[in-house]
Design a protein that fits this description.
- The strands form 4 sheets. Strands 1, 3, 7, 8, 12, 13, 14, 15 and 16 form a 9-stranded mixed sheet that branches. Strands 2-6-5-4-18-17 form a 6-stranded antiparallel sheet.
- About 35% of the residues are buried.
- Helices cover about 10% and strands about 45% of the residues.
- The protein is elongated and about 70 Å long.
- By secondary structure, it is mostly beta strands.
């Protein structure tokens, strides 16, 4: 996989960029650095600074649906299904079943959900729509072990999106693929194995060294500047000797 072509799924943090799924991504090579922010009082999540703005993970089903293409369809109960993965939706004695064309258990829905949309037409339309090219920074999720290994997964491999609670007191989207279930990468540590070009210049950041333009030695830390940007982050003094090329004379 060519790193330059990797489109990473992310929620744009600027209000004016959340009006189209086309804005819910950044290129891997456009990352400046990753730190964290606190969207709610009880947890921190990654915040990605890029050439074209700042991004975070999808923390709600609403944000998730806003960033997905139209063949990801909302059911009445809030669940999102990838209609490209749906074979048919059939009536059963009490409600209906969403039957997938991959080995995933059928999903039961209510009569109201079944009657709410022209499902046969939507499934036909989804089949000819272009595939989503974006990749999701994710970690394996299991209720017994909570979180496992990080990996980049294709949005198009997602079959069903539901809600789960990987930590106490908050709920986030859960992505079911044909073989494995994931949640988005919600810690700074989980980004490091996903993006090998990122390096921790502090305990609170991961920096794309390819995008660093210069660094300035200050009293308490080192200010790191990026190419063609006014954005800055910090670097611990202990790393100065390893990156002499950052310090312009």
């Amino acid at each position: 996989m060519d790193e330059k072509s990797i489109k990473v799924f992310g929620v744009p943090l600027a209000d004016d960029r959340r009006n189209s799924p086309d804005h819910f991504f950044y290129y891997c090579t456009d990352m400046f650095y990753v730190s964290t922010y606190k969207p709610k009082k009880n947890y921190n999540v990654p915040k990605v600074f890029t050439v074209n703005g700042e991004y975070g993970p999808a923390l709600t089903m609403k944000q998730c649906k806003e960033g997905l293409p139209s063949h990801f369809e909302h059911l009445v109960n809030g669940t999102i299904v990838n209609l490209k993965k749906v074979k048919e939706i059939v009536k059963i004695p009490h409600g209906a079943q969403v039957v997938f064309n991959v080995p995933v258990e059928p999903l039961e829905i209510s009569d109201y959900a079944f009657d709410s949309k022209p499902w046969d037409k939507l499934i036909e339309e989804a089949a000819v729509k272009p595939a989503d090219e974006r990749w999701l920074p994710a970690v394996e999720y299991d209720e017994s072990i909570k979180q496992g290994d990080p990996s980049l997964i294709r949005i198009e491999d997602v079959v069903v999106i539901e809600s789960c609670s990987p930590k106490a007191n908050y709920y986030v989207p859960m992505y079911k693929t044909e073989f494995t279930t994931y949640v988005e990468a919600m810690t700074l540590q989980s980004y490091k194995p996903l993006f090998p070009k990122l390096f921790p210049l502090l305990n609170t950041n991961l920096v794309n060294l390819d995008q660093v333009d210069s660094a300035t030695d200050m009293l308490f830390d080192i200010v790191v500047r990026f190419k063609n940007s006014s954005l800055t982050t910090s670097m611990a003094h202990k790393y100065k000797k390893h990156f002499p090329e950052f310090f312009k004379k």
